Protein backbone atom coordinates (compact mmCIF):
# COMPACT_ATOMS: atom_id res chain seq x y z
CA UNK A 1 0.00 0.00 0.00
CA UNK A 2 1.12 3.51 -0.87
CA UNK A 3 2.37 5.21 2.30
CA UNK A 4 4.64 8.14 3.20
CA UNK A 5 6.50 7.99 6.54
CA UNK A 6 6.68 11.80 6.68
CA UNK A 7 2.93 12.29 6.11
CA UNK A 8 0.96 13.21 9.23
CA UNK A 9 -2.18 11.42 8.01
CA UNK A 10 -0.22 8.26 7.08
CA UNK A 11 1.15 8.36 10.62
CA UNK A 12 -2.40 8.54 12.00
CA UNK A 13 -3.36 5.56 9.79
CA UNK A 14 -0.33 3.66 11.11
CA UNK A 15 -1.31 4.43 14.72
CA UNK A 16 1.90 6.42 15.28
CA UNK A 17 0.00 9.65 16.02
CA UNK A 18 -3.19 9.89 18.04
CA UNK A 19 -6.54 10.82 16.53
CA UNK A 20 -10.13 10.78 17.77
CA UNK A 21 -11.46 8.04 15.51
CA UNK A 22 -15.04 8.20 14.24
CA UNK A 23 -15.04 5.22 11.89
CA UNK A 24 -12.63 2.93 10.10
CA UNK A 25 -12.71 0.12 7.59
CA UNK A 26 -10.23 -1.50 5.24
CA UNK A 27 -10.25 1.44 2.80
CA UNK A 28 -10.78 4.64 4.83
CA UNK A 29 -10.55 6.12 8.27
CA UNK A 30 -12.51 9.08 9.66
CA UNK A 31 -11.37 11.17 12.62
CA UNK A 32 -11.97 14.53 14.24
CA UNK A 33 -10.14 17.54 12.78
CA UNK A 34 -7.62 18.82 15.32
CA UNK A 35 -8.44 22.45 14.51
CA UNK A 36 -12.15 22.39 13.65
CA UNK A 37 -13.95 25.08 11.65
CA UNK A 38 -17.07 24.17 13.66
CA UNK A 39 -17.56 21.68 16.48
CA UNK A 40 -17.94 18.21 14.95
CA UNK A 41 -15.69 18.92 11.94
CA UNK A 42 -14.24 15.59 10.83
CA UNK A 43 -12.06 14.26 8.04
CA UNK A 44 -12.46 11.17 5.86
CA UNK A 45 -9.22 9.90 4.33
CA UNK A 46 -8.12 6.91 2.28
CA UNK A 47 -5.68 4.65 4.13
CA UNK A 48 -3.43 4.82 1.08
CA UNK A 49 -1.28 7.90 0.61
CA UNK A 50 -2.31 9.98 -2.40
CA UNK A 51 -1.70 13.71 -2.54
CA UNK A 52 -4.34 14.41 -5.16
CA UNK A 53 -7.82 13.00 -5.63
CA UNK A 54 -6.79 12.58 -9.27
CA UNK A 55 -4.49 9.64 -8.44
CA UNK A 56 -6.80 7.79 -6.04
CA UNK A 57 -8.38 4.68 -7.60
CA UNK A 58 -12.02 5.37 -8.48
CA UNK A 59 -13.44 2.71 -6.17
CA UNK A 60 -11.56 4.30 -3.25
CA UNK A 61 -12.95 7.76 -4.10
CA UNK A 62 -16.43 6.23 -4.26
CA UNK A 63 -15.91 4.67 -0.88
CA UNK A 64 -14.66 7.95 0.64
CA UNK A 65 -17.74 9.67 -0.73
CA UNK A 66 -20.10 7.02 0.66
CA UNK A 67 -18.47 7.23 4.09
CA UNK A 68 -18.75 11.05 3.95
CA UNK A 69 -22.46 10.71 3.09
CA UNK A 70 -22.97 8.20 5.92
CA UNK A 71 -21.20 10.46 8.45
CA UNK A 72 -23.20 13.47 7.25
CA UNK A 73 -26.32 11.54 8.25
CA UNK A 74 -24.66 10.51 11.54
CA UNK A 75 -23.86 14.15 12.37
CA UNK A 76 -27.45 15.19 11.64
CA UNK A 77 -28.73 12.42 13.92
CA UNK A 78 -26.20 13.22 16.67
CA UNK A 79 -26.40 15.85 19.41
CA UNK A 80 -23.72 17.86 17.53
CA UNK A 81 -25.34 21.04 16.21
CA UNK A 82 -25.87 20.26 12.52
CA UNK A 83 -28.45 22.24 10.56
CA UNK A 84 -26.46 21.74 7.37
CA UNK A 85 -23.16 20.19 6.27
CA UNK A 86 -20.40 21.22 3.90
CA UNK A 87 -18.39 18.48 2.21
CA UNK A 88 -15.14 20.07 1.10
CA UNK A 89 -11.99 18.77 -0.53
CA UNK A 90 -9.02 21.00 -1.35
CA UNK A 91 -7.00 19.51 -4.21
CA UNK A 92 -3.60 21.19 -4.43
CA UNK A 93 -1.90 23.93 -2.43
CA UNK A 94 -3.37 26.61 -4.68
CA UNK A 95 -6.82 25.36 -3.64
CA UNK A 96 -5.91 25.55 0.05
CA UNK A 97 -4.66 21.99 0.61
CA UNK A 98 -2.26 22.03 3.55
CA UNK A 99 -1.91 18.31 4.33
CA UNK A 100 -0.70 16.52 1.17
CA UNK A 101 -2.78 13.38 1.79
CA UNK A 102 -6.18 13.74 0.10
CA UNK A 103 -9.02 14.18 2.59
CA UNK A 104 -12.69 15.08 2.63
CA UNK A 105 -13.81 17.62 5.20
CA UNK A 106 -17.25 16.97 6.72
CA UNK A 107 -18.23 20.22 8.43
CA UNK A 108 -21.43 20.74 10.45
CA UNK A 109 -23.06 24.09 9.69
CA UNK A 110 -25.79 26.28 11.11
CA UNK A 111 -27.18 29.67 10.21
CA UNK A 112 -24.86 32.53 11.08
CA UNK A 113 -22.15 30.19 12.36
CA UNK A 114 -19.60 32.72 11.08
CA UNK A 115 -18.00 30.40 8.52
CA UNK A 116 -18.06 31.55 4.92
CA UNK A 117 -16.07 31.03 1.80
CA UNK A 118 -14.63 34.41 0.90
CA UNK A 119 -15.83 34.44 -2.68
CA UNK A 120 -14.92 37.10 -5.18
CA UNK A 121 -16.23 36.11 -8.59
CA UNK A 122 -15.03 37.29 -12.00
CA UNK A 123 -17.61 39.05 -14.20
CA UNK A 124 -20.54 36.78 -15.20
CA UNK A 125 -19.51 35.02 -18.45
CA UNK A 126 -21.65 34.98 -21.56
CA UNK A 127 -23.26 31.70 -22.64
CA UNK A 128 -20.74 31.52 -25.50
CA UNK A 129 -17.85 31.81 -23.03
CA UNK A 130 -19.39 29.04 -20.90
CA UNK A 131 -19.73 26.80 -23.99
CA UNK A 132 -16.09 27.51 -24.87
CA UNK A 133 -14.94 26.62 -21.34
CA UNK A 134 -17.06 23.44 -21.35
CA UNK A 135 -15.48 22.41 -24.67
CA UNK A 136 -11.94 22.88 -23.32
CA UNK A 137 -12.67 20.73 -20.27
CA UNK A 138 -14.52 18.09 -22.35
CA UNK A 139 -11.54 17.82 -24.68
CA UNK A 140 -9.11 17.31 -21.77
CA UNK A 141 -11.29 14.78 -19.92
CA UNK A 142 -9.95 11.23 -20.20
CA UNK A 143 -11.88 8.02 -19.81
P1 LIG B 1 -6.52 21.16 4.24
O1 LIG B 1 -6.23 22.61 4.46
O2 LIG B 1 -5.29 20.39 3.81
O3 LIG B 1 -7.71 20.91 3.34
O4 LIG B 1 -6.98 20.59 5.65
C1 LIG B 1 -6.12 19.97 6.55
C2 LIG B 1 -6.91 19.76 7.83
O5 LIG B 1 -6.23 18.82 8.62
C3 LIG B 1 -7.06 21.05 8.67
O6 LIG B 1 -8.43 21.30 8.91
C4 LIG B 1 -6.27 20.73 9.93
O7 LIG B 1 -6.86 21.28 11.09
C5 LIG B 1 -6.27 19.22 9.96
N1 LIG B 1 -5.07 18.63 10.58
C6 LIG B 1 -3.78 18.96 10.34
N2 LIG B 1 -2.95 18.20 11.07
C7 LIG B 1 -3.76 17.36 11.79
C8 LIG B 1 -3.47 16.32 12.75
O8 LIG B 1 -2.31 16.03 13.09
N3 LIG B 1 -4.53 15.68 13.27
C9 LIG B 1 -5.82 15.98 12.94
N4 LIG B 1 -6.79 15.30 13.53
N5 LIG B 1 -6.13 16.94 12.03
C10 LIG B 1 -5.10 17.63 11.47
ZN1 LIG C 1 -0.21 10.16 3.68
Plain-language structure description:
The chain is 28% helix and 17% strand. It has three helices and five strands. The protein has helices at residues 8-13, 58-77, 127-140; strands spanning 21-24, 28-32, 42-46, 84-88, 104-109. Strand 1 (21-24) and strand 2 (28-32) form a beta hairpin. The longest helix is centred in the middle third of the chain and has 20 residues, at 58-77. The two termini are 24 Å apart. 20% of the residues are buried. The model has no long low-confidence stretch (mean pLDDT 96). Guanosine-5'-monophosphate binds next to strand 2.
Strand element count: 5
What can be said about the biggest beta sheet? 5 strands, antiparallel
Shape: globular
Overall pLDDT, averaged? 96
Ordered list of secondary-structure elements with their pairings:
Elements: H1 8-13, E1 21-24, E2 28-32, E3 42-46, H2 58-77, E4 84-88, E5 104-109, H3 127-140
Antiparallel strand pairs: 1-2, 2-3, 3-5, 4-5
The site of guanosine-5'-monophosphate has 12 residues, from strand 2.
Characteristic key phrases:
143 residues, alpha+beta, five-stranded antiparallel β-sheet, 3 helices, 5 strands, binds guanosine-5'-monophosphate
Amino acid sequence: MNTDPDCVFCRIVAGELPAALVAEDEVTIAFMDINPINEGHLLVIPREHHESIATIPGDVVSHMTLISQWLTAALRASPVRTEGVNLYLADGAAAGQEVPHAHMHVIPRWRRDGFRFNVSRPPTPTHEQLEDMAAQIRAAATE
